[in-house]
Design a protein that fits this description.
With about 280 residues, the protein is an alpha/beta fold. It is built from eleven helices and 13 strands. Strands 10-9-8-13-11-12 form a six-stranded mixed β-sheet, sandwiched between helices. Strand 9 and strand 10 form a beta hairpin. Helix 5 packs antiparallel against helix 6. The two termini are about 25 Å apart.
C-alpha cells in the first residue's frame, strides 16, 4: 500500500485478487470456527470445506478480526507512505468487524475513516473499488469516503437460499420468519435493506425463485451503466446460467463477475445460495 490514501476492507468483500492487486486494496480476514478449530477466511478454509462441514452438521460459527489486526494493518499503511486510510466493512448488523476497526482507528498513526457500508459480498467490494478509483484519480481521503458511500447508496443485493435454517441458526434473520418459511415449504427471496437481511418474497419452487431473482435484477439494473456480481455457494451451474441470462438482458453492464462466496457468508446461508449484486456506477 504505497498510495497517499490506503484502502482497507475485509474478507467478506470477495474482491477478485487481480482487482485487489491493481488497486492496492488490503482485506482483513474474518474467522470461521468449525468445532474447536479457528480458520482465517481466504487463506485457511475454502468454500468447499465449509460446505462439507455444514452438510455434516458440524458446529460452525464466525468471528470478527481483533482490533489489533486492524491496528497492524493501519500501521503498515502508514509505514508504506499512506497519509490516510479508508476502512470499508460489512454491515455492523452482521458482525463486530466495524466496531473492531473503529477501536483500532483511534490510535492509528494517520487519520482513518471507518465506514459501515451496510453491505456484504461484492456489494461491499464495489464500494471498495469506488473508493480506490477515487484515490487513483488523485482524490483525497474525504473524496474516497464520499465515493464509497455514494456507491453503497445505489447498490442493491438480492439472494435466494434453499433454506432459512442457516440464517436462523446464526441469528441473521428472525426465528419467526424462518419457521414460517419452513412451515409453508416456500423458497425465500431475500434482500439487503438498511444493512439487514429482509424477506422480499416467498416463491413456491426453486426454479420459480431463481427466475424471479433474475427478473428483480433486470428491473433494478435498467439500461444504465451498471456493475453486476453473481455469487453462489456450491451452485456453480446455477450461477453460470443466471450470469448468462443477465448478460443477454441487461444492455448496460460495464462489468459482470461470477464468484463463489467465502466461508464466512457461506456459514450463514448454506449450500445452494444464489445472489445478485446490482451496483450502478
Amino acid at each position: 500500500m504505497s498510495r497517499h490514501v490506503a484502502i482497507v476492507t475485509d474478507s467478506t468483500a470477495y474482491l477478485p485478487p487481480q482487482a485487489m492487486e491493481r488497486h492496492s486494496i488490503t482485506a482483513v480476514p474474518l474467522t470461521v470456527v468449525i468445532g474447536d478449530q479457528a480458520l482465517e477466511e481466504g487463506t485457511e478454509i475454502s468454500a468447499r470445506s465449509l460446505a462439507q462441514a455444514l452438510q455434516k452438521r458440524r458446529p460452525v460459527t464466525t468471528s470478527r478480526p481483533s482490533p489489533d489486526v486492524f491496528a497492524k494493518t493501519y500501521r503498515a499503511a502508514a509505514e508504506a507512505g499512506a497519509r490516510g486510510v479508508v476502512s470499508l466493512h460489512l454491515s455492523a448488523e452482521f458482525s463486530g468487524t466495524y466496531d473492531a476497526a473503529v477501536l483500532a482507528a483511534k490510535d492509528a498513526p494517520v487519520p482513518v475513516r471507518v465506514v459501515d457500508t451496510r453491505m456484504v459480498g461484492m456489494a461491499l467490494g464495489f464500494c471498495a473499488l469506488a473508493a480506490a478509483e477515487a484515490v487513483d484519480g488523485g482524490g483525497s481521503l474525504d473524496e474516497a469516503v464520499a465515493a464509497a458511500e455514494k456507491r453503497a447508496a445505489g447498490t442493491s443485493a438480492f439472494f435466494y437460499v434453499d433454506t432459512l435454517d442457516y440464517l436462523r441458526r446464526g441469528g441473521r434473520i428472525g426465528a419467526a420468519q424462518a419457521l414460517l418459511g419452513s412451515a409453508l415449504a416456500v423458497k425465500p427471496l431475500l434482500q439487503l435493506d438498511g444493512g439487514r437481511i429482509e424477506l422480499r418474497e416467498k416463491v413456491r419452487t426453486a426454479s420459480k425463485a431463481i427466475a424471479r431473482l433474475e427478473e428483480i435484477a433486470v428491473e433494478r439494473a435498467g439500461s444504465g451503466d451498471v456493475d453486476i456480481a453473481v455469487h453462489h455457494l456450491s451452485a456453480p451451474e446455477r450461477a453460470a446460467v443466471l450470469a448468462d441470462r443477465l448478460r443477454e438482458r441487461v444492455p448496460g453492464i460495464a462489468e459482470l463477475q461470477v464468484s463463489e462466496v467465502g466461508a464466512v457468508i457461506g456459514a450463514h446461508t448454506g449450500p445452494g445460495l444464489l445472489a445478485v449484486v446490482v451496483s450502478p456506477r
